[in-house]
From TrEMBL, chain A:
<keyword id="KW-0963">Cytoplasm</keyword>
<keyword id="KW-0072">Autophagy</keyword>
<dbReference type="GO" id="GO:0000423">
    <property type="term" value="P:mitophagy"/>
</dbReference>
<dbReference type="GO" id="GO:0042127">
    <property type="term" value="P:regulation of cell population proliferation"/>
</dbReference>
<dbReference type="GO" id="GO:0034727">
    <property type="term" value="P:piecemeal microautophagy of the nucleus"/>
</dbReference>
<dbReference type="GO" id="GO:0034497">
    <property type="term" value="P:protein localization to phagophore assembly site"/>
</dbReference>
<dbReference type="InterPro" id="IPR040182">
    <property type="entry name" value="ATG13"/>
</dbReference>
<feature type="domain" description="Autophagy-related protein 13 N-terminal">
    <location>
        <begin position="100"/>
        <end position="200"/>
    </location>
</feature>
<feature type="compositionally biased region" description="Low complexity">
    <location>
        <begin position="462"/>
        <end position="475"/>
    </location>
</feature>
TrEMBL record, chain B:
<dbReference type="GO" id="GO:0019901">
    <property type="term" value="F:protein kinase binding"/>
</dbReference>
<comment type="similarity">
    <text>Belongs to the ATG101 family.</text>
</comment>
<dbReference type="GO" id="GO:0000045">
    <property type="term" value="P:autophagosome assembly"/>
</dbReference>
<dbReference type="Pfam" id="PF07855">
    <property type="entry name" value="ATG101"/>
</dbReference>
<dbReference type="InterPro" id="IPR012445">
    <property type="entry name" value="ATG101"/>
</dbReference>
<keyword id="KW-0072">Autophagy</keyword>
<dbReference type="GO" id="GO:0000407">
    <property type="term" value="C:phagophore assembly site"/>
</dbReference>
<protein>
    <recommendedName>
        <fullName>Autophagy-related protein 101</fullName>
    </recommendedName>
</protein>
<dbReference type="GO" id="GO:1990316">
    <property type="term" value="C:Atg1/ULK1 kinase complex"/>
</dbReference>
Amino acid sequence: MLPYAMDTDLSSQDRKDLDKFIKFFALKTVQVIVQARLGEKICTRSSSSPTGSDWFNLAIKDIPEVTHEAKKALAGQLPAVGRSMCVEISLKTSEGDSMELEIWCLEMNEKCDKEIKVSYTVYNRLSLLLKSLLAITRVTPAYRLSRKQGHEYVILYRIYFGEVQLSGLGEGFQTVRVGTVGTPVGTITLSCAYRINLAFMSTRQFERTPPIMGIIIDHFVDRPYPSSSPMHPCNYRAGEDNGAVYPSVEDSQEVCTTSFSTSPPSQCVFTVTKTHFQTPPPVVTDTLKVPVMGLAFSHQLSSSRLSYQPAALGVGSADMGYPVLFAGGLNAAHPHQLLGPGKEGGVPPVPSQPAHGTQADQERMCTPLDGVHYSAATPSSSEDTETVSNSSEGKCGSPHDLLETIFIRKVGAFVNKPINQVTMANLDIPFAMFAPKNVELEDNDPMVNPPDSPETESPLQGSLHSEGSSGSSTGNTHDDFVMIDFKPAFSKDDILPMDLGTFYREFQNPPQLSSLSIDIGAQSMAEDLDSLPEKLAVHEKNVKEFDAFVETLQ
Amino acid sequence: MNCRAEVLEVSVEGRQVEEAMLAVLHTVLLHRSTGKFHYKKEGTYSIGTVGTQDVDCDFIDFAYVRVSSEELDRALRKAVGEFKDALRSSGSDGMGQISLEFYQKKKSRWPFSDECIPWELWTIKVNVVNLANEQERQICREKVGEKLCEKIINIVEVMNRHEYLPKMPTQSEVDNVFDTSLKDVQPYLYKISYQITDSLGTSVTTTMRRLIKDTLAL
């Protein structure tokens, strides 16, 4: 059958619907797979009244970064013959070894089912296929590995579009077919190829072993294939490469607002109602900054946490007790998700200048890790707000809980600590993440024992050089130094006797830098201009050094 | 009409029976439940949303996904609990089977009662083993976990064949096809029954019927 002949048999409305179904099916597939590898239990609520925002009548949250990555990989195309959408799941140890675990493939073949009703049968079968995917993702070996990820290793995902690459799975990999759905333009097949040769990495190895001495880098910029997309950690919000704010507002509107009604096939015609559909406003993605104090404080929390990471990274031997923050692209379009901090009351206002961290860090925000808050909602839409409240469950029912959850996740990389280890009092303490939550962790926490060598490098540099710094340990300078007493960062000591609160207040408003002060700079404009040529000459002389420096940043 | 029948067999330790049965039954019902139907005028209807949640097993190295519906979970737990008790009290042999049957109701004219016509039958044959020591139990945990993974794959394979499913009903017929008594999800009409095989090899049928809408009598 010639390809173009298919279109003449399918009405244009059906064709449009089908393309839309396939597109959102692909996006939801990616969400299910990545969420199943986050390392935590997923829980969504059933809702008897249709909200019109849940594709395929299933409550599957949308993690914005994952949607962004999927759309980036698809680049406006749909799976077709020879063009499959693949989600690669791999494991990376803290020493930098990595191994592909699974490849999930969404493929399309040429076998068409002309008779099938697009709007009804195809839709319902796609829904069934997603349910099967939910079931199968818990059944492959990688699920158990992902539930145990933490100090020793992390699970990463990568989405690519094109030909399936199974070579990284080792010998004797197995395949499981999740299901197929015939459509008038081809048959959609969803399958998984998974590695079974986990010889050097059995699941037992990761059960109840003490955290190994090593650095877990939270920015994964792996590029195993030259032309392929970067790997992303399953439980980090990926955003390190460009600090972009993800334009999920536009997408969320598209997903949320398409509702439809079905009818029994024997009776009325299926209609896709667009009553709720609004034309998504053009979104300028790189200026989506929400100037909310509460939000900005969250930035502050996360960015300042980032800035202290190099202290640990530089040391190289620190135990994994330090809290690893999930720096990543926050979806600024969801300010209501982060109004929690503001509501807590105990949070001081954002300082006008960041005490630490670079400007780039300021634009990064922390997204909650728990899966239930990724509803694609916009502040303006009350219907969507409902979705937020309806679709969260369990411990994630309120912004209050949300913040608590953030703290939980920060205590040790990737590992879920029980709630009782995080006290609510911590939420009010600035830089509370530096205060170790676990007594046993703080002894080895480099934050508690500030390293002797001052790390003044940009946190980005330290964290972007995942491959470099992970291996380069600068010596076990802190093995001998074992703190016995509880000593939060900046607490009483001989040099600077003050408690945390005092410290924060004092450093909240640092004095103006002298170079920025107008008073001290008695130099006139003319003098400035005069000195410019000299400065330029000096810079030109050192251009090689600067280039090398810039190289190291990339 | 022919009823599609699938049989699964598992060998488990006594304390694993409940979780293993729940895992299989929930996986089947995940695929056989939809959101609540809301009929509008002109015969169109919209469908509610089905939520899902992960369940970790305590006695098996296994996790499964179930529909987020406490009512449904309670109903299944009740059935499985009775099955487990019956197994335990039947004797040391510990063989039995639990069946999940999906059916449609066909209204008959008075004075005949409605017919229940099954269209899919899932039977899980259980063999309870007794283990001597902790090491064997640990191995059993893993082995049963792996077996259940295979069962889930089998179930998904059957579901994926897209064989007969009842036609989507009109508003007046919906109770003949779906169980509309739950407030958040709508599974196809189903009933669970079980049989215990006693040590003599004869089967002692103990049927437990679900109490909704299938006991309509004259």
